Amino acid sequence: MADNKKTILDLIGNTPQARLTRLTSHLPDNIIVEAKLERFNPGGSVKDRPALKMVRDGIESGALAPGKTILDSTSGNTGIALAMIGAALGYPVRLVMPGNVSDERKRICRAFGADLIFSDPLEGSDGAIIRCREIFDLDREYYFKPDQYNNPSNPLAHEETTGPEIWRDTDGGITHFIASLGTSGTMVGTGRFLKRTSPEVQIIAAEPDSPFHGIEGLKHIESSIVPGVYDETVHDEKIGVSTERAYEFTQRLASEEGILSGQSCGCAAAAALTIAERLAAEGKPGHIVAIFPDGGEKYLSTPVFSGETMHYADGI
Q: For a 10 Å CB count at each end of the chain, is N or C smaller?
């Protein structure tokens, strides 16, 4: 019998996994590459998970109470998640984001009723972080700041949900886990669960290969404000992916696999193929699962789907 008591927030998590077949057609059958499709969360991204846990933990602790406004910096997806959750729970939401995030992201946040403040596009997500801190410091009693970059509830959400789901859906057969780095919460939390469950699982972090890049939502860790939740001891390897390669795989996922995804998914897919081809060259089997953080609908107005070739190497 159907459960008619579920709200939109009860639908977060338990996202499906899909095997990549055409991109991996050159690989042996004993190498499986799967994508965990986080676009199937109600807010459209992996960020629904940590956003919900941070808000619920805030309510439980008393840090978020009626009359307060939720405030955080975001490159888009966490903002959408917070806006959706705030609308569902009756809390106003104010978001600081770089002025150059896609129009789709801005419109979705506004559709949920969020108030948007734009930081300098040239300063990226770090500029949004700094501007958000300034706003928060002006009136700390007025705001609840989840602070996704430093809140331990961010990785804990993945440790409690994403990791167990992947272990369950691979019947414990996963050999490699791949996540692209933004706040790093997905990699850290999921990686901790998988390592605790099976130390043999290899945790791979994928990131832009240079400070100057065009992969929305991701950080080049060494040149950025390092998130407080980032734990470099969790990943066994870090793979740098160029903007061009991330875009190429984003486009190929749509045209060859039928998976319309965001740029960070292309980054994760590129890293997954790097690992898969390495295993093939070594004659080893593998079951690789990559997190695909969101769908591509929010990026249709961006260069990744414009048909133009973008160059980011050497500051060009």
A: N
